[in-house]
Amino acid sequence: MKIEKIKKSNISKIDLNNFAFGSIFTDHMFVCSYKAGQWVNPEIKPYQSFSISPSASVFHYGQACFEGMKAFKDDNEKVWLFRPKENHQRIVKSSERLAMPAFPEELFMEALTLLIKIDKHWIKKGVGNSLYIRPFIFANQESIGATESTDYKFMIICAPANTYYTSNVRVKIEDSYSRASKGGVGFAKAAGNYAAQFYPTNLAKKEGFQQIIWTDSSNHEYIEEAGTMNLFFRINDTLLTAPTNDSILDGITRKSIIDLAKKEGLKTEIRPIKVSELISAAKSGDLKEIFGSGTAVVVLPIIGFGYKNTNYDLPIIENSWAILLKKKLNDIQYNISNDPFNWRHEV
Ligand code: COI
User: Fold this and answer.
1) How far is CA 305 from the centre of its chain?
2) Cα(283)–Cα(277) distance, rounded to whole angstroms?
3) Which CATH number does 2-162 carry?
4) pLDDT digits (tens, 9 = 90+) for 267-288
5) pLDDT tens-digit series, residues 74-83
6) Fold of 170-333
C-alpha cells in the first residue's frame, strides 16, 4: 500500500478538550478506488479535499453507505479496536443491498490498522475519549444513468471523539413519519437513511426532543430504533430490546449489550415491543429505564419521552442498568477488564 505522510501533524492547531462530535479530523485518510471490477490503488495520504465530477452518481442516486467504529487507548498507550470485523461484515451487507461491490476484509483490516497506527497520537487516554472511525463507500461513475455505478471509492477518515450528547436526552415516539419499511434499506447503513431523518428530527427538536424513536411504517405500533442508536427498555426487572429485522440496524453495540446483560444475569428479552406496552408501563411506574446503544453514543440514558403530545418522565433510579452495562462495555473497550468475549483487537 502506498503511504504518504503529512510533514507536520495538525494536532497542535486543535483544542482536543473543546470540539463537537465529528467536526475535526486526524492527519491522514485511506482511499481506494474500484474500477473495471477491481479494488485498486489503496493509499494512505494526508487528509484533504479531492475533486469529483458533478455527474458522479452518488450525487444523483445516493449510492453510498458507511460504518461507525472506534479505537480506544489504554493506560499503557496500547490502542484497541472493538469488534472491527463485525463492522467489515456490516459494510459488506450494506454494500450488497445498495448494489455496490464488497470491500475485501484483509484490505479493510490492513488499512484500518495502518491508518490508526499513523494517527494514534490523536487518541486521548481516559474513558470517554476515543477515535471515531468512519469507513465509507460511494458511487463515483461519471454518469446520471439510473443504474448502479461501475466506479466506487472506499475511504476511511478518523475523528477524535468524546461525549456525543452533552445534555440530557428526551426522545419522541414518532407516529407519522417513517424511517424504514419492510423490504427496504433500514437494516443497512445507507447514507440516505440518515438524510431522511433530518426533517422529522428537526420537527421533534422544535418540541424539545433530541431524537426520534422510530416505529414500524405500517401501523406505528411497534418500537424500532432511534436512527443513531438501538433502544433498550427496562420494565421492572426485565431488559427489553426489539429483534433486528430489515428495518432495524443490527447494532454491534446492541449485540454487545445483550451479551453483557446476560452475563450479568439480567433477565433479557429480545421481542417486538408495542408502543402501547411502553405507555402502560410508563403510566404504572413499571418502566424504569430507557437507553440507547450505538458506536457514537455508546450507552445513552434517556430521561423521558413524548408520545401524541404527552410527555412521560422516567424515574431517577439507583443501580441503573444503563450505567452498569456502559461500565462493563467501557471496561472491555479500554482494556480495563479482561475480555471474555474476545471483542478487543489490538492495533
Ligand atoms: C454510529 O454510532 O456510528 C452511527 O452511525 C451514528 C452516526 C450517524 C453518528
Assistant:
1) 21
2) 10
3) 3.30.470.10
4) 999 999 999 999 999 999 999 9
5) 999 999 999 9
6) D-amino Acid Aminotransferase; Chain A, domain 2 (3.20.10)
